[in-house]
Amino acid sequence: MTINTVAVIGSGTMGRGIAQAAALAGHGVLLYDLTDEIVQKGLRTIRHSIEEGIRRGKTTAGDAAQAIAALSPTTDLAEAARADLVIEAVPEELELKRKVFGRLDAAAPPHTLLASNTSSLSISAIAGATHHPTRVVGLHFFNPAHLMPLVEIIRGDQTSDETVAAGRAFVAGLGKTPVLCADSPGFIVNRVARPFYGEAFRLLGERAADHETIDRLMRSLGFRMGPFELLDLIGLDVNLAVTQSVYDAYFQDPRYRPHPIQQRMVASGRLGRKSGRGFYEYE
Fold first, then answer.
1. Cβ neighbours of residue 267 under 8 Å, at least 6 residues apart?
2. Is the pTM of this model over 0.85?
3. Which pLDDT band holds residue 269 (cuts at 50, 70, 90)?
C-alpha cells in the first residue's frame, strides 16, 4: 500500500523526532497529544529543530518550509486513526499501549497500519488488544529519531507479510535502514545494549572508576558516546523502563538486572538532558 499520511501518537522526544522525519520525507503528518497546549509545544520544538537543520546545512529552506507546512496538530485520537499509518510513541507501559491500540483499532479504517515505537515490549501482546492484529507492526526508531538511521521492524505473531513490507518501504522512504527482527525481549539493539549499560553501572557502583573516566575510555575504543553520556541523552527513566522490561521478560536473568544507582537517580528526578541534570549538568 502507499503511505501518504502519517499520525504520530505522543509529542514527546520520540514522537517529535518521528514526526519530523516523516514530514521531511514528504508525508502529511498529524501529531496527537492529550491537550492542545502539549501538542503545540511539540510542534514548536519540531519547527525549531527543522530550522536548526537549515543553519547546519542539513536541510534546504524549501524542504524545511514544506515539512513545517505538512505538520498538523490534533487532540482527537479518532482523527489520527484515519491516517494511512499510525505510529504510537507513548510511555513504555504495556497496558497504556494496549489501551491506545484498542481505541485506534476501533476507529481506524481497514487500510490503516498501526505501528508501535516500543523499544522492548512485545508487539504480539500490544496487537492482542486489537481485532485486527495482522495490521500491527513494530517500528522502533532510535533517539534522535530524525537523525539516527536504524529502524527495527518487529513482526508480531500475527503480523501479515503485507504489513511488514509496507513498514519496510515506509522506513526506506525516510532514507533510513530497516532491520527486520523477531518479537523477542529488547529486539536486537536494546538486548545487545543491556550489558553496555549494566557493566558500566557495576563498575561505577564498585568505584572502579568515575562516570567521566568510563565514558572517556569507551570513546577511546571507538564509541561515539560513553554509556553515561548516552544514558543522559536517552533519559535515565526511559532506559530504566527498558532495562526492567527486558529483565522481567527474561525471568530475572542476572545479565539484565537494573542497578540501584539508576533507580535512585530516576527517583530524584535526575533524568539527563531533558531534566537539565543526569550524570552531567545541562543548561
1. none
2. yes
3. very high
